[in-house]
Amino acid sequence: MSKRLVAFLSILSLFLSSPFIPANAAAKAGAKCTKVGIKSVVKDKSYICIKSGKKLVWSKGVSKLAKPIAAAPTSFSNLYENRDGIAYAAWKSTAESIAAGKSNVSSLKIYIGPNTTAPKYKTPEIAIGLVSQAFSNYKTPEDVHVIQYSVDDVKWADDKVKSIIDINDYNNLNRQENGRLVDSNCGATDCYGAKQVSTNSGIAFVLQGVPKVSNYDPMVKARLELGQLDAHEFLHAMQRATITGQQTKEWAVVWIVEGGAELAQNLVMSHKSYEEYMKWRKLDSAQLYGKNSKITNEFLTTYLNAKYNSDYWKTVDSYYAYNLGSRVIEIFVALKGPGVMLDLYRESALQGFEPAFQSIFGLSWSEASPVIVKTIVELFQSGE
């Protein structure tokens, strides 16, 4: 479904419940109107009465003509032809999963360092609950601890982890993080990152470095103020929960791990608005669009080549594992629904990537990947 059609449906529902004046009132942008919030449609444009200074005037007209609904892909055989329907299909299936699900988080504790200014955003409970709700048929970590700390509270955060789990679990987590369980989220003067780790018994931590100074990342509002960072990290906890207590064969593909979390953060936190989802989707991938995009057939074919990446994509540029990875996973969600993000992670870890893909989609990776390459390259080069 196109952005214009979704916008049209949203406006239509507002018309049914809001004051409305007929088109013959001849609304025109900047002209005088009588009451804030009343609406008028003139030809193909909708106007709303707004307050500008001390005056009430008609807003700039917005076209409400809808494009034809884009068909959703149903398989890799019609993926390229129906590529314009991928984003909406992925968003819609996730929104439906959230509407039908419920959160299974039973214990969530949030700790803020004594020398850390509490973040203005109060989103961990919301974001973590929504992620669990979106995947309510999957195992959710029941014991979740969010630890927020500035560069001045790194030692405090480390001690907090030790106070929650025993020393063996702590040493195991610290070893997995190359001896930098907590401080790797911070530099010498400020913190800039977050990570998620889980113990073998399923206790989940979100370790969140709280920055003192903005890094001017255009995505900072979505990640911090709108909860996408919290959703991203908790999706990792959900991934890990799928394999807790099981013997794994290998690490899951990095663009499944990070691409899935990058996609989920936007799908989940924008589940009430397709327009919001598309806004953050485009901003997150801003550097990948256009005819001069690095995302060419040659680049993406190499990127997705399972044989070339014999170490299962550990050498893939981490930058592309996020935003480009999310576009690959978006295709899978459009075809199978959001649960495929966790299914593919679990089965890749237990079986290996290629057998996992074959078992979930019913065809080989070598058959599917050329279609994925063609589809994604076309979408980026056309600005979608």
What does this structure look like?
The chain is an alpha/beta fold. The protein folds into three domains: 61 residues, no CATH class; 168 residues, no CATH class; 143 residues, no CATH class. Strands 1, 2, 3 and 4 form a four-stranded antiparallel sheet that branches. The N terminus is likely disordered.
Q: How helical, in percent, are the residues? A: 40-55%
Poorly predicted sequence stretches spanning 5 or more consecutive residues: 1-25
Number of contiguous helices: 14
Give the terminus-to-terminus CA distance: 13 Å
* Backbone structural class: alpha/beta
Produce a short descriptive summary.
The chain has 384 residues and is an alpha/beta fold. Helix content is 45%, strand content 11%. The strands form two sheets. Strands 1, 2, 3 and 4 form a four-stranded antiparallel sheet that branches. A four-stranded mixed sheet has the order 5-6-8-7, with helices on both faces.
